[in-house]
Amino acid sequence: MRLLTHNMLASNVRGATTGYPLKLEAAKWVTKEVELNADFIRGLLPKIDWRALVAATRALGLPELLPEEQPAEEEIFAEGAAEVEGSAIRRIHHALLEIHVQEGSLVCPDTSRCFPIDKGIPNMMLHEDEV
Amino acid sequence: MASSTTAQAPAPAPPGLKEGIAGLYDESSGVWESIWGDHMHHGFYDSGEAASMADHRRAQIRMIEEALAFAAVPVADHEEKKPKTIVDVGCGIGGSSRYLAKKYGAQCKGITLSPVQAERGNALAAAQGLSDQVSLQVADALEQPFPDGQFDLVWSMESGEHMPDKSKFVSELARVAAPGGTIIIVTWCHRNLEPSESSLKPDELNLLKRICDAYYLPDWCSPSDYVSIAKSLSLEDIKTADWSENVAPFWPAVIKSALTWKGLTSLLTSGWKTIRGAMVMPLMIQGYKKGLIKFTIITCRKPGAS
C-alpha cells in the first residue's frame, strides 16, 4: 500500500465521525524507486490531504521527510527542482509513490478499529456488528 | 424470493454471502483469466452479430466504451472535464480499473471482496506500469472505505448483482461521487413488473433462484427499481437502457470456451464453486431468452458543480 492510497482511505465503522485520516502502523515496509514525473505530481497534489500524508510519514519513522506545512507550489514545481537532491518535489514523490507498506494496520481515529494490511493490500471489510 | 418491490426495507446480507462471493472469486478468477483475460464482464455486440472467440475481447472493451458514451463521460482529450479520479466498485482483477486509468490518465481505486483478485490486479497493474495510477483494496461496496465526494467517475461493471441491499449500494456510489461526478452501473436485472404484478411468476423465481445459488447472488431487482433509488437520492440525468440484445452472443461463447480442452481441464482442477458456476450458464441463456433477465445500464450524475 502506497501512502497515496492511504491518503484516500477512510473508516466507515459505525460510530466513527469522519474515520479520517487512518493512523498508520507499519510492521513492514520497503521503498521501490520509481521515476519522478512532475506533471503527474502536479495532477495529484490538489487531491492530497497534506496533514494525513505528513502523519503517515511520521508514523513510519520519517519525521524529517516532509514539513508540517505544504510548501508553496512555486517551490515544489520550480524549474530544475526535480534534479535537486532533497528538493520538495522529490520528497513528495518519495512519500507518495516510493514507500510500500507490506504488513501493518490502519487504525480508525474515532473508534480505534484496526484494519489489517496484508501483502500490501488493506482489508477494509467491516464485521456485521460494525455496520 | 428473487424479486423485490420498489419500497425495499434495508436488510442485512444473507449469512455467508460475502464469504461466498469472496470464495467464488478467489477460486475461479484464475481460470477465467487464463481463458478470457482480465475483463470479467459481458462483451457488447451489434444485434444479431455472430462473434468468434477473437472478437470477444474486443467486445468486452467495446462494452466499456459504450457505457462511457451512454453516460456522456467527457472524452480523454478534454483535459479539464475528463475524470481524474475513478472508483471501480466490484473491480475483479482490475481490468476496467487499468483500462480507465490508462484512457484518462486518471487515478483509479478498485474494491473487491476477494483478496486473491486484489493481489492479482495489483500485480497486473505493476506489470503494466500502472501501479502509480491503480490500486485495488479489499473492501465492501456497501461500506466503501473512502471519504465523501472523492471520485469524478464511479464505475460498477457487473457487480451490482452481488449487492444484497440495492439502496445502500447506490447510496454509497452517490456518497463517494464528487459533485457533478458521473455514476455508471452495468448490471443484471430481472424484467420490470407489470402494474398488475406484485412479483415475478413462480417459474421465473425458480430459474433465478438456481442462478443465484450458483453465483452467490442475493435478490434481484428491476431496472425501474434502480431508477427509483437514484431518484430518491436526488441524482440527476438518470438514464437507463436494455442491452440484452447486445450481449446475446456472450454466454454461448463462454460455454463454448468451457467445453474446449483447456476449459475442461481448468474447470476440473479448479473447485466445486467454479464448476457449479459453469453448470448454471445455460440457465443464463434461458433467462435472457424468456425476457426475464435484462442486461441493464443505468447512469446518472451527482448534483453539484461540474
Automatic annotation (TrEMBL), chain A:
Taxonomy, superkingdom: Eukaryota
Listed InterPro entries: Trm112 (IPR039127), Trm112-like (IPR005651)
Entry's Gene Ontology molecular function annotations: protein heterodimerization activity
Biological process according to GO: rRNA (guanine-N7)-methylation; tRNA methylation
Pfam families registered for this protein in UniProt: Trm112p
Family designation: Belongs to the TRM112 family.
Subunit structure: Interacts with TRM9.
Name used for this protein in its record: Multifunctional methyltransferase subunit TRM112-like protein
Origin species: Digitaria exilis
TrEMBL record, chain B:
Region of interest (SAM motif I), ranges: 86-95
GO molecular function annotations of the record: S-adenosylmethionine-dependent methyltransferase activity
Chain ranges of the Methyltransferase type domain: 87-185
Biological processes per GO annotation: methylation
SUPFAM superfamilies, alphabetized: S-adenosyl-L-methionine-dependent methyltransferases (SSF53335)
Keyword Methyltransferase: yes
Region (SAM motif III): 176-185
Recorded superkingdom: Eukaryota
Keywords: Methyltransferase, S-adenosyl-L-methionine, Transferase
Keyword DNA-binding among UniProt keywords: no
Residue numbers spanned by region SAM motif II: 149-157
Similarity comment text for this entry: Belongs to the class I-like SAM-binding methyltransferase superfamily. gTMT family.
PANTHER family from the UniProt entry: MAGNESIUM PROTOPORPHYRIN IX METHYLTRANSFERASE, CHLOROPLASTIC-RELATED (PTHR43591:SF81), METHYLTRANSFERASE (PTHR43591)
The protein's name in its UniProt record: Methyltransferase type 11 domain-containing protein
